[in-house]
Design goal:
Layout: E1 18-19, H1 24-34, E2 38-43, E3 46-52, H2 53-59, H3 82-85, H4 99-108, E4 113-118, E5 121-127, H5 128-137
Parallel strand pairs: 1-2
Antiparallel strand pairs: 2-3, 4-5
Length: about 140
């Protein structure tokens, strides 16, 4: 297995994003529409937080709703903002960070996605799923 492959080779480049002004109903819709579990929250293109599907589950009964059902009881979502629910203390990585380094970070933390940034600019996201797919390709 190659040891110095940059994370830019496996990261998602067309990132689904939320703005601070978006609501949690929109977040729920994006999670389901794109079949994803993590959405970076941006102010402009600068990352300010990360919202996970698990974050939504913590404040709602979203897991009790059929995944094919587009109708969501949004009452609880109106009680919170994206900013209140998202993770704010992020670890981000650069596109040239190796896949091994990204895997080490994810293996040692309790989250499953890393924003990939060039300076303050969000350019991608890498998840544990991306790492598993890469591992499978190696065999």
């Amino acid at each position: 297995m190659k040891k110095s492959v940059p994370v830019s080779t496996i990261m998602t480049k067309n990132v689904v994003k939320l703005n601070l002004s978006d609501d949690l109903t929109k977040a729920e819709m994006l999670f389901k529409k794109h079949h994803i579990r993590h959405i970076p929250v941006v102010g402009g293109n600068k990352i300010v937080g990360m919202l996970s599907y698990t974050d939504l589950l913590r404040i709602s009964f979203a897991d009790a709703i059929d995944d094919d059902d587009d109708v969501v009881d949004t009452t609880v979502y109106n009680m919170f903002t994206v900013e209140q629910v998202m993770a704010k203390k992020l670890i981000s990585i650069a596109p040239e960070t190796t896949i091994k380094e990204a895997a080490e970070i994810l293996a040692s933390k309790e989250f499953h996605a890393l924003p990939v940034c060039e300076g303050d600019l969000l350019v991608g996201i890498v998840t544990t799923t991306d790492l598993i797919k890469y591992l499978i390709e190696q065999y």
